[in-house]
Amino acid sequence: MHLKKWQPNGSPLLKIVCSKPLELATFLLNLIFTYYLIYRYGAKMSHNKKLDFDSECVHAGMGEYEFGPVVPPIYQTSTFKFESVKQGISLFKGEEKGYIYTRLSNPTIEAMENAVAILEGGHKALGCGSGIAAIYTTFIALLKAGDHVICSKSVYGPTSTLLATLLSKFGITHTLVNSSDLEQVKDVLKPETKVIFIETPGNPTLDVTDLKAVAEIAHNNNAVLVVDNTFMSPALQQPLKLDADIVVHSMTKFLNGHADVVAGIIIVKDEETYLSFRKTLNLVGGVIDPFNSFLVHRGLKTLKLRMLCHSENAMKIAEFLENHPKVDWVRYPGLKSFPYYKIAQKQHKAPGGMISFELKGGHDAAETFMNSVNLCTLAVSLGGVETLIQHPASMSHYSIGKETREATGITDGLVRLSVGIENVDDLIGDLERALEKV
Ligand SMILES: *Cc1c(COP(=O)(O)O)cnc(C)c1O
After folding, report:
1. Are residues 208 and 102 in the same domain?
2. Is the pLDDT reported for residue 46 higher than 50?
3. Is residue 5 one of the residues assigned to a domain?
4. Which of helix, strand or coil describes residue 80?
5. Are 258 and 363 members of one domain?
6. What torsion do the CA atoms of 275, 250, 397, 202 make, to the nearest 10 degrees?
7. Whose C-alpha lies nearest to ligand 1, atom 5?
8. Atom nearest to 230 CA in ligand 1
9. Range of 339's domain?
10. 239 DSSP assignment
11. Is residue 270 predicted with pLDDT exceeding 60?
């Protein structure tokens, strides 16, 4: 009906053109000017999306601050002054963007969160006080009583302990599976399965799970795929790009990379999830603080460099160990003998810094060996610039119990090595001398 009025004869458009030439000219000029602005500054405004990963490591997350610092200042403050009651009200209503209280948000924390979100290819991120706080917050945000979780068997010890103890108290059930075997995942899937939690490579066996395939299984069941990407970091593996929904990290490890911070993070893909997770984190309260955020953000600048060096060193050490007569077996994603070599090649940009191996002579040989290293440090944790060595059965995975350990392949002789960025010949020399003592 309307269309008829738009015929050239007596069209309303023509009438407007004739009766309001000034308004029309202003409108057109505005339009041209807007397009010019987009053309001139558009590239700059969206530059964060166009940079390569290497450049993002250095620049991502940087905001605008007073005095023009080149890194985000540490806003070491618990609370923020309102200009007036009116402003306070509008901040609380969310009508105005700004800061209220550091448990809710803080510019230093936000800068680091934005950086990690960009590196993971996510929408936004939520900094947490530890990796386990990030994992707990994620579970609490996604689950309710009666829901079921499928979790990788080869997983950070406290993650499975959290499911088995705290979460089971609230009626959340779970099943541990070897997630590298997709049939096992499908077999335990139930209508109540709401979350599939995957750690890949798994801790400490380094089992690799095909993320794209497991994402499909999760989504066909309306479940959410959460991936713990601590071992690889976004420099080597980006789960969100392989269809995972949520990524968590212990930033204590490779993201910070300097063994001087305990911290975690959750990366999400959309605003709706972000807002619901932010509400949960505000109530759970396990947030990161400004100083630790600053340190992590500083660590991110060398993430790519460090991950490549960790990988290069670890590859040479894995080959050295594999050829050593006192070593029974070595597991490292870069070795041809690795059971998941093919999928690892597809899913990782480099094989990473984690190696697990077993000495001939089991627990006693492992103990003598670990007591004999010098340059390598006997300590739990991983992902720092210094090489750390530890014994999962008696240390990081002691809490899960012998039965679960054996079912997972964490033998009493298994040694876990987090290869640092020292000179690789120095490291091999240290390992060689310690092996001689065995
Ligand atoms: C260390 C670690 C965690 C827990 O992180 P914290 O920062 O110690 O709380 C979770 N997942 C993996 C894979 C880890 O290595």
Report:
1. yes
2. no
3. no
4. coil
5. no
6. 90
7. 131
8. 13
9. 304-436
10. G
11. yes
Region 408-432: mean pLDDT is 94
Count of Cβ atoms closer than 10 Å to residue 2 Cβ: 6
- 234 and 329 fall within a common domain: no
What residue owns the CA closest to ligand 1's atom 6? Answer: 131
Give yes or no: residues 156 and 238 share one domain: yes
Question: How close is the Cα of 87 to the center of ligand 1, in Å?
Answer: 40
Q: Are residues 277 and 211 in the same domain?
A: yes
Under 8 Å between Cβ of 235 and 229: no
Both 349 and 258 in a single domain? no
Pocket residues: Cβ below 6 A from ligand 1? 130-132, 156, 199, 203, 228, 230-231, 250, 252-253, 262, 264
Active site residues: 103, 156, 228, 253
The pTM of this model reads 0.88
Count of the separate structural domains present in the chain = 3
Residues 168 and 179 in one domain: yes
pLDDT higher than 90, residue 32: no
Per-residue DSSP letter, 208: -
Q: For the chain, count helices (H), then strands (E).
A: 20, 12
Q: Which amino acid is at 263?
A: A
Instruction: Give the integer Cα–Cα distance in Å for 364 and 193.
Output: 42
